[in-house]
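Example with several molecule types.
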Amino acid sequence: MWRQFGPALRITLLFTILTGLIYPGIVTGLCQILFRHQANGSLLEMNGQTVGSSLIGQGFSKPQYFQPRPSAAGNGYDGSQSNGSQYGPTNQKLIDRVKASVDQFRKDNPDYTGPIPADMVTASASGLDPDISPASAEAQAPRVAKARGVSLQDLQRLIADHTTGRTLGLLGEPRVNVLLLNLDLDQKFPQKEPNH
Amino acid sequence: MTAIGILNIAVYFLVILALTKPVGVFMTKLFQGERTFLHPLIRPLEKLTYRLCGVREETEQRWTQYAASLIAFSLVSLLFAYIIQRLQGFLPINPNHFGSSHAPSGATAMTPDLAFNTAASFVTNTNWQNYSGESTLSYFVQMAALTVQNFVSAAAGVAASVALIRGFARKQVNSIGNFWVDLTRSVLYIFLPLSLLGALFLCSQGVIQNFKANTTVKTVEGAAQIIPQGPVASQEAIKMVGTNGGGFFNANSSHPFENPTPLTNFVEMLMIFVIPAGLTYQFGRMVADRRQGWALFGAMSVLFLAGVLVCYPAEQAGNPQLTKLGLETKASSMQPGGNMEGKEVRFGIPASTLFATVTTDASCGAINSWHDSYTPIGGLVPLFNIQLGEVVFGGVGAGIKGMLLFAVLAVFIAGLMVGRTPEYIGKKIEQKEVKMAMLALILMAANVLVFTGVSSVANFAKNGYWNPPGPAAANITNDGPHGFTEILYAYTSTNGNNGSAFAGLNGNTPWYNLSLGLATLIGRFLFIIPMLAVAGSLAAKKKIPVTSGTLPTHGFLFVGLLIGTVVIVGALTYFPALSLGPIVEHFLMREGKLFSSLFSLPIWS
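Resulting structure tokens for the full complex:
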């Protein structure tokens, strides 16, 4: 048994250097050359300022913006605390929280009377979900249109432009990236607003 | 279930089926010492490794030496991983200053018990995580401690599997291979090339790879938001192909920086199954009867498809209490519907439930949705998958070993029924093999059930050292049967070296850190050692010729018998515990019964 510790020690050291330092080093070098934008977080710049990442959701609460899903990451969309709610299906807190979200959604969007899209009132897994379903975007469109004073058709066209379909028509779900949609909204239908 | 959802599952399965043979052929050649297409590139590095480490390539080991090498290597690894974590504040590549006096507020301290848990968990290929990567660990620790263990714990698992296969394939010899050679070949020829390609692909899709400190941005509405950074792609790739499952971030493969698109999600799922599936083919080739390998593959496929076809509709049906509030649960081209709590929109229900099934069929444990928020039946599937022993393709190391153990039991049971000495692959299965197989099974069951029982009732001093919330059962997030499932899942997952969680359980207390860490070590070594003993015993036996009295182990009859053995053993062992957890919760949910917290919990992180 004791004779095994010689090779054990040496091979651990060797593989620590090879797979723990050289391998990630090479990957970093290649990624920084080949995929610089992605490797650094797919950050988005607006007027010289970094406003977020196209892959990481952020909080929106004002009526003139499309709103994302509820988030359990820190106090909401905290990139240093990714998490879901961990609520199980028979937890009273889950039902209470969803009910509050449903009531709020109905209040904010009085023009929408259909069933609530499930994703709009449930907390995502990462707490940083950048997407909502097309149905969730459509349901918010009348509110945003009113707040911005633009026509509903214009907004529906914008949502359609920002809807990503299934990959190869097969993988994943159709979705709308909330941050990209809202940034485009500000570009195409700007509104004067103090402190902004 | 939608047609597209079913098609997703079918396409995934067909791609795995197509990859099984080429991967199996490559690995067979590799471990039999033949040349592969990678040899011109990697062979010099391999030779250099042996020279530097004092390994004699041609020397073979008896099973006891093989086991001793594996244990010595794991002990040294454990020590390395522990020390690097504890010293992270003094080590380089730590731009977020973890473990030092400049650590960000909200950072988790790397205490001795947490470092032990993490080291044990990664050395055993479990990757259970009682910490959140983004708020606890420096990039140096993520790479030099955790990425390294992702590689070598997986490689050690493959090595042990190959040794067991040799036991069946060889005749009348005392040796089952050389651990150091098998370990080195796994790392250099399988895991490094696959990870390198995988990491580049993942990065091209948006997985980050840098050494920068976290970026703070000003959001559109003017708030400050932290965007995490780090060398994620390099770890993500080996996390999947090594069926490790330990995420760089707390949210694991649901985090957009670990798994940004449906395509990365599909590729990550392929990475989990590709090597375990290849091992079944390798088994068939090495015992010189490919049908034997496909029989194992067939049994695994049936169990795999059964699992996902229970989980997917359960999640799509959603939670009746939420449907009552006016939520849409039907999937359409406009929305995913179903139970979306703890799931990401880009994956929806089919890609989430397929991932949950795959990650627990194998001993991977990566997650792209939180199993804790699944419906009771949806959550039962991953839990029961692990309890079956992760034999459905299984982890890179564990799967085929577990399935061969059940094959030994299956022929033993069949032998009892007809009154003949059982045989498998031309080897008489005798007292020693059956004893070792049963020993492994009983130890695994005891490891799960005893710890679950103790943690359900153990009482500690409130605000004391061992478990500050007081009773060990007070660490749950969800009360009622769901809370019990959180504890049961924790020990099931650590024993099975899976690492996924019903993550509502707050495991970062000394009691849970030590008991869960111990469960990973028991689950790994008290399983591998009996299996190596079986390998040694089988290798020494002679091959007996097939007669008319031999039970063929490549036909439908045997596949059925094998599936039956797996399911019956799993059900007999765990049915009482499952009835107290997900099964009773399912009926309570339908009755509309809800639970509020009995314990008032301090926020403990």
